[in-house]
C-alpha cells in the first residue's frame, strides 16, 4: 500500500506541477486580475489548499483502488486522460486565455472523475468518498470558468 501511495502522490503532484508551470503567470497575471470573476471566487490561498487536499485524497483513493480491480488497462487509460486534462487546463485558461476551451477541459475532467467515482464505487464502496472532494472542486471550478466566459465577452 505504501509504495502505491507514494507512486500516486508523485504522479498526482507532478501533474499539478507541470500544469502550474505551463500556466505562465497564472492567477497573478494582469489578464486574470482584470477579468470579471464570479462573486463566489475563493481567495487565492484556497486554490492551493484545495488542490493539495484533493491530490492527497486522490492518491489514497488510487492506492486503494489499484489492487481491487482486474482491468488495469482501463484504469491506466482513465488516469492518463485525467492527467492530460488536469495539466491542460492551466495553460489553456491562464496562458492562452482560451476560456471556452478551458471550460470544455473542465467538463471533460469532471466527467472522467465522475467515472472514477461511480464506475469504481462497487470496488471501493465507502472509500470512494476520497474522490468526492475532487469531483466537487471540479464542479466549482467549472462554474468559475463558466462565469468568466459568460461575463467577459471573450470570443474563444
Topology readout:
Blueprint: H1 2-22, H2 30-34, H3 44-65, H4 72-95, H5 99-119, H6 121-124, H7 132-151
**Strand element count:** 0
**Average predicted local confidence, pLDDT:** 94
Structural class: mainly alpha
Tell me, what's the shape?
elongated
Number of helices, counting only DSSP H or I runs of 4 residues or more: 7
Content of β-strand = under 5%
Distance between the termini: 44 Å
Largest sheet: none
**Low-pLDDT residue intervals, each spanning 5 or more residues:** none
- Report the radius of gyration as a whole number of Å: 16 Å
Q: Sketch the topology as an H/E string, one letter per element.
A: HHHHHHH
Helix content: over 70%
Keywords:
single chain; 156 residues; mainly alpha; 75% helix; elongated
Compact description:
The chain is mostly helical. It has helices at 2-22, 30-34, 44-65, 72-95, 99-119, 121-124, 132-151.
Walk me through what this model shows.
The chain is mainly α and 156 residues long. 75% of the residues lie in helices and 0% in strands. Helix 1 runs parallel beside helix 4 and helix 5 packs antiparallel against helix 7. It starts with a helix and ends in a 5-residue tail after the last helix.
